[in-house]
Specification:
single chain, 474 residues, alpha/beta, 8-stranded parallel beta barrel, two-stranded antiparallel sheet, disordered N terminus
Length: 474
């Protein structure tokens, strides 16, 4: 099998193993953190059965055939760590190895480029029992797993180390949606983020040391933060919000060091506990070397937020049902997250603001000086959708949403920003981490009972759009 490379703009779709594969107890797969949360605890924010998802494990050929038919040029996906290493870091599941070889081979046979993520929210339970990434010593397990994949799956050209370090750590220690169900625990949030950054860096350096033929990057969860007005205290509060989600991670990934602004923000957020966040000179050397060697970065962009001064009491409420107006995020003495008046939102209260994508990309390029390839690794709109009598979905809202974001990218490419591709989230409908099966993002509709795929109006629009633009964006 041969890897595929490309010099044209990649129009693709994205998914993740746990959200689409199903087959959680089949062919030797071991449990991951979400199996424990959803099946063995009563603490899930939204209870649902993850065992079937969109059955991609068994229907991958059908999904890839749909990709080929509707001009999906690249498919972003993840390997399930707990499927590959079910019980520990030593014994490999050969059925899983063969499965992923089969998936990559079939993609390549259809001239579709795999973009493969090593960790997408789904640490194996054997690692979680050791502390997951809150324990610095566990970085070595991710490094070994990454090296195995690099050596084994030589047909893969585009690699991503970790998907959304912020979001995974946030779910653990701020949002309280997965083990260990921390709540507004910013110290352990930053420790977990930092150790995941070290794991990412070690994987990048292993990739280069092994002289793998391909490119390696990372996909970040990014929102752009704006002050609600020009009040100096609000501008400072906006800096704190940006440090939590973006800036701490960006400085590690792109610069390999932390500025005085970030360190001061961390001291404001963590106060006396700041000294418990251990950053060594050796760490910085590793981060710096990885920053130099990383080939590309991915931006997962869905929304922007506006920041106001907080109320005294911390109050956090998250919309997991799609009933508008449930979101309220106020971190006392730090910042309050707002929606700008006259900005429309999704059913899940996410502001729809394509301009934020432009400002985010410019920030990465100019503020952090990352001038290598940038992919939009996720973008899309989730909605409650019911199949019509004609067995389709008239998702004009999705066409409008994606078109506006693509026009931002086209504009930036003309201004010579190195944007290399766009991935719609998601390929088919899939389960949503804290929303179950009600929030549908897919290009293709999935009937959860029959697992039959149906075409949405968006799929036809995408096919025509890519036909017209595939050779015009570079």
């Amino acid at each position: 099998m041969k890897y595929k490379t490309t010099k044209q703009f990649l129009f693709g779709t994205a998914s993740a193993a746990y959200q689409c594969e199903g087959a959680i107890d089949q062919d030797g797969r071991g449990p991951c953190i979400w199996d424990e949360v959803l099946l063995k605890t009563n603490r899930a924010l939204n209870k649902y059965d993850p065992s079937y998802a969109s059955n991609h494990y068994y229907q991958y050929k059908e999904d890839i055939d749909l990709a080929a038919k509707f001009n999906v040029k690249s498919m972003r996906m993840s390997i399930s760590w707990s499927r590959l290493f079910p019980k520990d870091n030593k014994k490999i599941n050969l059925k899983a190895v063969q499965h992923y070889h089969d998936v990559f081979s079939y993609m390549l046979s259809k001239d579709i480029i795999p973009n493969v993520t090593l960790h997408h929210f789904d640490s194996p339970m054997w690692l979680v029992k050791k502390g997951d990434f809150i324990k610095r010593d566990n970085v070595k397990y991710f490094k070994a797993y990454a090296e195995y994949c690099f050596k084994e799956f030589k047909e893969v050209y585009l690699w991503s180390t970790i998907n959304e370090i912020h979001a995974y750590s946030n779910d653990k220690y701020i949002k309280s949606s997965i083990i260990p169900f921390g709540k507004n625990d910013f110290l352990n949030y930053f420790i977990h983020v930092y150790h995941m950054l070290l794991a990412h860096a070690e994987a990048v350096l292993s990739f280069k040391r092994l002289k793998c033929k391909g490119k390696i990057g990372i996909a970040n969860a990014n929102a752009f933060y704006y002050p609600i007005n020009k009040n100096e205290r609000i501008i400072k509060a906006t800096s704190l919000a940006n440090t939590v989600q973006n800036a701490f991670i960006f400085e590690a990934e792109f610069l390999g060091k932390f500025s005085s602004i970030i360190l001061n923000d961390l001291k404001t957020i963590l106060k006396d506990e700041f000294k418990k966040l251990i950053i060594t000179e050796l760490d910085l050397k590793i981060l710096k070397e990885a920053a130099i060697n990383m080939d590309w970065v991915g931006v997962n962009y869905y929304m922007s937020w506006w920041i106001d001064l907080p109320d005294d009491k911390t109050v956090t409420s998250y919309n997991t049902t799609g009933d508008k107006g449930k979101t309220a995020i106020n971190f006392g003495n730090m910042y309050k997250i707002m929606v700008k008046p006259n900005v429309s939102t999704t059913l899940w209260d996410w502001p729809i603001y394509p301009k934020g994508l432009e400002d985010l990309i410019k920030s990465i390029y100019h503020k952090y000086h990352f001038k290598k390839d940038l992919y939009i690794t996720e973008n899309g709109i989730g909605n409650k959708e019911i199949l019509s009598k004609t067995k389709t979905i008239d998702d004009d809202y999705r066409i409008d949403y994606v078109k506006k974001h693509l026009l931002i990218l086209k504009k930036l490419i003309k201004q010579n920003y190195p944007i290399a591709g766009y991935y719609l989230w998601s390929h088919t409908d899939c389960l949503s981490w804290t929303n179950g099966y009600d929030k549908r993002y897919g290009m293709f509709y999935v009937d959860w009972k029959t697992q039959k795929r149906y075409l949405k109006k968006f799929a036809y629009w995408w096919k025509i759009f890519v036909d017209k633009n595939i050779n015009k964006w570079f």
